[in-house]
Amino acid sequence: MSEVSSAQLEALRTLLPSEPAKAKALLEEGLHEQPESAALRYGLALLHENQGRRDEALRALRDAVAREPHWLEVATRDFAAVDRLYLHELGLESVPDFIGRFTRLKTLDLGHNRIGALPDSLGALRELEILYIHENRLTHLPEALGELTAVHYLNAGENPLSRLPDAIGRMRSLIELRLLHAGLTALPEAIGSLAALRELHLRGNRLTALPEAVGELRELRHLDLQENQLAALPDALVKMPRLRLLDLRANPLKALPRGLEAMPALEKLDLRWTGLAPPPSLRERGCVVLT
C-alpha cells in the first residue's frame, strides 16, 4: 500500500464500517512497507476508532501528528467528538486556530513543547476540564482562558509569563492551579474570584507581594509560595478557614501576618530559610512547623 492519498483515505473511511478486516490487512501491509508513514498511522487511528478502541486510536493519532502536524486538522473531521488529546512533547511551536473545533474535549495536554502563544479559539472548548500547557514558551495567556469555566485543573508552570490575565478570575471551577517557575511578578486581584480553588502552587516565581484578594480563597487547602521574593504577607491570608499547608520557604519575610496562630485548619507551616520563628501556640495545638 503506497502513501495514502485523499481519495484513498476517503475509500478507507468507507471500507471500515463494512469490511474492517480488509481495511486492517491493507493498513498492516502498508505499515510493514512504510513504518514511518504519518498517513498510514492516521489510517490506523481510524481503524482503532472504528473498533471502539479509543486509547489505541489516540496513540496512533498522536504518532501521525508527531510526524506530520497537518493530520491534526484532518482529525477535526474524524475525531471531532474525542474527549481527550495528548499532544505533549511533539516539538510544537504553535497551536492552530482549529483546535477550537474539538468542542467535546475534557483533557488537552500541550505540555513540553515550544509553543509561544495560544489562540483565542481555545475559548471554544467549553467542556474542557483539564489543561496542561506547562513547559512551553508562553509569554502571556489569552483572555479567552476566561471562557473555560469547566476547567478544574490548569498547569501553566515553566513558562516565561510574568503576569496573569484578569480573565483567570472567570475560571470559577478551578480546583488546582499550578504556576511553578512561571516568572510571575504579581497576581491580579481577580485571583480572589476562584471560589472553588483548593490548591495554589506558586513556587519559584518573583512575587514581591500578594493581593488582599487571596483572603477570598475560602476553599484553599494548599498554598505553596516557596522561593519567591515576599517580604510581607497580607493580613487577609489568615481569613482562609480551610488552609492546611502553607509553604513559605526561602522568602525574605520580615514578619508573619497577624492572626496566623488562629487559622483553624492549619496543619503544616514551613518557614525554612526565612529566619522567622512561628507563634508558640501553633506547635502547642499540634501544627507541624518547620524552621
From the 3D structure, determine the CATH topology of the largest domain: Leucine-rich repeat, LRR (right-handed beta-alpha superhelix)
Give the number of DSSP strands.
10
CATH superfamily of the largest domain: Ribonuclease Inhibitor
Determine Rg (CA atoms, Å).
Answer: 24 Å
Protein name: Tetratricopeptide repeat protein
Keywords: Leucine-rich repeat, Repeat
Organism: Pyxidicoccus parkwayensis
InterPro entries: Leu-rich_rpt (IPR001611), Leu-rich_rpt_typical-subtyp (IPR003591), LRR_dom_sf (IPR032675), LRR_domain-containing (IPR050216), LRR_R13L4/SHOC2-like (IPR055414), TPR-like_helical_dom_sf (IPR011990)
Describe this structure in words.
It is a single chain. With 291 residues, the protein is an alpha/beta fold. Helices cover 23% and strands 10% of the residues. It is built from 6 helices and 10 strands; from the N terminus they run H-H-H-H-H-E-E-E-E-E-E-E-E-E-H-E. It has a 10-stranded parallel β-sheet. Helix 1 crosses helix 2, helix 2 runs antiparallel to helix 3 and helix 3 runs antiparallel to helix 4. It is elongated and about 75 Å long. It starts with 5 loop residues before the first helix and ends with a strand. Keywords: Leucine-rich repeat, Repeat. This is Tetratricopeptide repeat protein. Pfam families: LRR_14, TPR_19.
